[in-house]
Design goal:
Elements (H helix, E strand, L loop, with lengths): L1 E5 L7 H15 L4 E5 L5 H10 L4 H25 L5 H25 L4 H8 L1 H16 L3 E5 L1 H4 L2 E3 L4 E3 L1 H9 L7 E6 L2 E3 L5 E3 L4 H12 L4 E6 L20 E3 H9 L7 H9 L4 E5 L8 E4 L8 E17 L9 H12 L3 E6 L5 E7 L3 H11 L1 H5 L7 E14 L7 H11 L6 E4 L5 E7 L3 H13 L3 E8 L3 H12 L1 H6 L2 E9 L3 E3 L10 H7 L2 E2 L2 H9 L6 E5 L4 H4 L2 H6 L3 E4 L9 H14 L3 E2 L10 H10 L4 E7 L2 H11 L4 H10 L8 H4 L2 H13 L10 E2 L13 H8 L3 H13 L2 E9 L5 E9 L11 E8 L7 E6 L3 H14 L3
Parallel strand pairs: 1-2, 1-9, 2-6, 3-6, 9-11, 10-12, 19-20, 19-23, 23-24, 24-25, 27-29
Antiparallel strand pairs: 4-5, 7-8, 11-12, 13-15, 13-16, 14-15, 16-18, 17-18, 20-21, 21-22, 26-28, 26-30, 28-29, 30-31
Helix pairs in contact: 1-3, 2-3, 3-4, 4-6, 8-9, 9-11, 10-11, 12-13, 15-16, 17-31, 25-26
Keywords: Amino-acid biosynthesis, ATP-binding, Kinase, Lysine biosynthesis, Metal-binding, Methionine biosynthesis, Multifunctional enzyme, NAD, NADP, Nucleotide-binding, Oxidoreductase, Sodium, Threonine biosynthesis, Transferase
Protein name: Bifunctional aspartokinase/homoserine dehydrogenase
GO molecular function: aspartate kinase activity; ATP binding; homoserine dehydrogenase activity; metal ion binding; NADP binding
């Protein structure tokens, strides 16, 4: 015998009813089959609403009319597809059951109250009608059907709305029934009978519970729970990325997962199948090919496998403390007596090693009643100050990690606490389950999503993930995306995945629910209608649920750079090619670094100087090893490197500048390059990295251009005006050549910290002599590197090398 149970989402419409009938038919062809059905999706909610509209009879009739339409539409659709469907009989059953509801609601409206026994009858109608409909589908397919009446066969005790089945008595009753071998057995879930054989309900997840009980009573070899998910995952896949479907878990693990919030099976559903050792499998009617998850007898005690991370929200923690707590007679037993009398669900209970403090975690909704009962019980102890006033902390959550023999794996707890510590999430209480299958911790509820995501990632993923919010898709940003796409396979081999979550420019942004498809991002960005501004960006950052988020700033925007401290405070790393933050006031420069250190986040900006050259990292490494800068000379502009190289070859200044612009070395208006300000910014960053407290205005710039040249904002006007300087620069170049020297635009840092930017005549024996064609060269004279300096040389301009430098910084986030 196999027991099949189908949930409401599996019975949402005619197509799904027929699909379920196909599954039943296929199983029955292989052996005896029993089926438990829930109400169709949304039907139970409507039935509950009827019971809540006790003061408005018209509303109740409207809801009943809605239900009638749902069921009549359902059987009309079935009649169109299922040949020989018993339409009239089915319709008659539906109308009869709904008429009973109408009669009951009339009484409810007169009484202005809905008795619990009446409420139970009304709410149960969805399951009863599901069975009527499925019975007639199967009969139309020439199958014989026997309906098991749970009211007479499931003996239960409890309330009308939440009863518990007496398994042994129910087993005796069902064993007395003579079932025909060629019959399919059908039963409504969620329903049982009390001693008076009145209809009662089995509470939350009652249909699953019914299925487990019936599986026991029929001695089924297997209980299949069909729902709308593939099985049990290591975490909720709707909230956490990169979860894993579990092939199997033990009864105890399933119990722990369920108890601590996982939406699989209710603990009391697991109890009967565990007690009678009936394997259970969770399967998906939306994905029948999925293997599902088996819940069965535990593994060999020597094995260890983590099974999941789950959580409970809306938890309150009540602290019982006092210096004289040891003197309080029967303290623990009295607390447990209150728990029993109040039917309070205890999530966690811990006691400090000094025995002067007990923490009890309960559901927030039960905290006031529980606190009042404690205060009444211990009023004398509180009055005599044997106990401190009880303190309740609300807005908490419990995160739990579940696994067989979790206590035998020495590094699980350390990984959990290390992960939370790195994320700056405080742990308020800790408990390890007596079953030794769980570790639970209490955190503030506002951190629970982040905590679950990070702990799950640490414990279940070998892959290193970076979530990128890219701002700026000019030449550098676009090239960066191209490089990431080209390197995806190589990164996968190293278990690294860069997930682009947001792409934005100054006008709009692309932010799908899942990661962006880089093979089609340009088209998707073109079609997006989401407006971008700083407020939108801040909202995304504040509400983010990314695992390892990084802001990548490929703009030159001042306003974006002024948000860096906020980005870091909101748990984002920053990778930037934008020099504005590092050349802002020294106070802001220092605050960024203090915040990054405090939040344990990385602020990386290698491309601020030298594009793809490792200038910043080299200087940091020198200082970290005890070396210090004595002086520095460097060519820090790729555009000016090209222009002065062409001057050396006899080309005029205006022509060389045109060529540099055509090759993409310059800014849109070459005036910005020739002003020398960009070189000064780079020099300022190097000076600050070397330890000098320098401001931009401290740097002496000997300009290449007269002041009036900056008035020409249009590139073609500027290039035309530049011709006036050709004779002057020709003369300067000839003068240098006469000395066997060349002209270079050089940035200098002296040992006093003084910085300057100017044209210099460079002789043949100088390390900057051969630097041209867009190259940068940086000569560091230090304690360790003198008289021969440490030299970095290579292309210092262009989208490819700059994007490559940003890409390299991005990967350093993982180090």
């Amino acid at each position: 015998m196999k027991l099949l149970k189908f949930g409401g989402t599996s019975l949402a419409n005619a197509r799904k009813f027929l699909f379920v009938a196909d599954i039943i038919e296929k199983n029955f062809q292989c052996g005896k089959t029993a089926v438990v059905l829930s109400a169709p999706a949304t039907v139970t909610n409507h039935l509950v609403s009827i019971c809540e509209e006790i003061v408005n009879y018209d509303n109740m009739l409207t809801i009943i009319a809605t239900l009638e339409k749902i069921f009549i539409d359902l059987i009309n659709d079935l009649n169109k597809v299922q040949s020989n469907f018993l339409y009239e009989i089915t319709k008659k059953n539906i109308i009869r059951e709904l008429d009973q509801i109408k009669n009951l609601t009339h009484g409810i409206s007169l009484l202005k109250t809905c008795p619990k026994n009446v409420r139970a009858i009304i709410i149960s109608k969805g399951e009863i009608l599901s069975v009527y409909i499925m019975k007639n589908i199967l009969i139309s397919r020439n199958y014989k059907v026997t309906i098991i009446d749970p009211i007479y066969n499931f003996a239960s005790s409890g309330t009308y709305l939440d009863s518990t089945v007496d398994i042994l008595e129910s087993k005796k009753r069902i064993e007395k029934i003579h079932f025909q071998k060629d019959n399919i057995l059908l039963m409504s879930g969620f329903i049982a009978g009390n001693r008076k054989q009145e209809l009662v309900l089995l509470g939350r997840n009652g249909s699953d519970y019914s299925a487990a009980i019936l599986a026991v009573c029929l001695k089924a070899k297997c209980c299949e729970i069909w729902t709308d998910v593939d099985g049990v995952f290591t975490c909720d896949p709707r909230e956490i990325p990169n979860t894993h479907l579990l092939k199997s878990i033990s009864y105890q693990e399933a119990m722990e997962l369920s108890y601590f919030g996982a939406k699989i099976l209710h603990p009391r559903t697991i109890e009967p199948i565990s007690q009678f050792n009936i394997p259970c499998i969770i399967k998906n009617t939306k994905n029948i090919k999925s293997n599902g998850t088996w819940i069965k007898k535990k593994y060999n005690s020597n094995t260890f496998l983590l099974k999941g991370v789950t959580y409970l929200k809306k938890i309150a923690m009540l602290n019982i403390s006092g210096m004289y707590i040891k003197n309080v007679r029967n303290l623990i037993s009295r607390i447990f007596s209150i728990i029993y009398k109040n039917h309070t669900k205890i999530i966690l209970l811990t006691q400090s090693s000094s025995e002067d403090k007990i923490a009890v975690c309960i559901l927030e909704k039960e905290s006031e009643r529980f606190l009042y009962s404690l205060q009444q019980e211990f009023q004398l102890e509180l009055h005599n100050k044997l106990l401190n006033p009880f303190r309740v902390t609300n807005n908490l959550s419990v995160l739990s990690v579940i696994g067989e023999n979790i206590n035998k794996k020495y590094n699980i707890a350390s990984k959990i606490f290390s992960t939370l510590g790195t994320a700056k999430i405080n742990v308020l209480a800790i408990a390890q389950g007596s079953s030794k299958h769980s570790i639970s911790i209490v955190v503030e509820e506002k951190y629970i999503s982040q905590a679950v995501q990070k702990v799950h990632y640490t414990l279940f993923n070998d892959k290193k993930i970076i979530d990128v919010l890219l701002i700026g898709i000019g030449g550098i940003g676009t090239t960066l995306l191209k490089q990431i796409l080209q390197q995806q396979k190589s990164l996968q081999q190293k278990n690294v995945e860069i997930q682009i979550r947001v792409i934005a420019n100054s006008k709009k942004m692309l932010m799908p629910e899942k990661k962006i498809d880089l093979s089609n991002w340009e088209n998707d960005f073109k079609n997006t209608t989401k407006i971008f501004n700083l407020d939108v960006l801040k909202k995304i950052i504040k509400n983010h649920s990314f695992l390892n988020p990084v802001i990548v700033d490929c703009t030159s925007d001042q306003l974006i750079s002024e948000q860096y401290i906020d980005f870091l405070n909101n748990e984002f790393h920053i990778v930037t090619s934008n020099k504005k933050a590092n050349t802002n006031k020294l106070d802001y420069y220092q605050k960024i670094r203090k915040t990054a250190f405090k939040k344990n986040k990385k602020f990386l900006y290698e491309t601020n100087v030298g594009a793809g050259l490792p200038a910043i990292e080299t200087l940091k490494n020198l200082r970290n090893t005890g070396d210090h800068l004595i002086r520095f000379k460097g060519i820090l502009s790729g555009s000016l490197s090209f222009i002065f190289g062409r001057l050396e070859e006899g080309i005029s200044l205006s022509q060389a500048t045109k060529e540099a612009k055509k090759l993409g070395f310059t800014e849109p208006n070459p005036c910005d390059d020739l002003s020398g300000t960009d070189v000064a910014r780079k020099l300022l960053i190097l000076a600050r990295e070397a330890g000098y407290k320098t401001e931009l205005q401290d740097i002496k710039i000997e300009p290449l251009l007269p002041k009036d040249f900056t008035n020409y904002k249009k590139p073609y006007e500027f290039l035309e005006k530049l011709k006036e300087l050709d004779p002057i620069f020709l003369k300067k170049n000839n003068k240098a050549n006469a000395k066997n020297s060349v002209l270079r635009f050089v940035g200098t840092i002296k040992n006093t910290g003084q910085c300057s930017v100017k044209i210099e005549e460079i002789s043949k024996n100088h390390p900057l002599y051969k630097v041209k064609n867009g190259e940068n060269a940086l000569a560091f004279y230090t304690n360790y590197y003198q008289p021969i300096p440490l030299i970095l040389r290579g292309y210092g301009a262009g989208n490819n090398v700059t994007a490559s430098g940003v890409f390299s910084d991005l990967l350093r986030i993982l180090s």
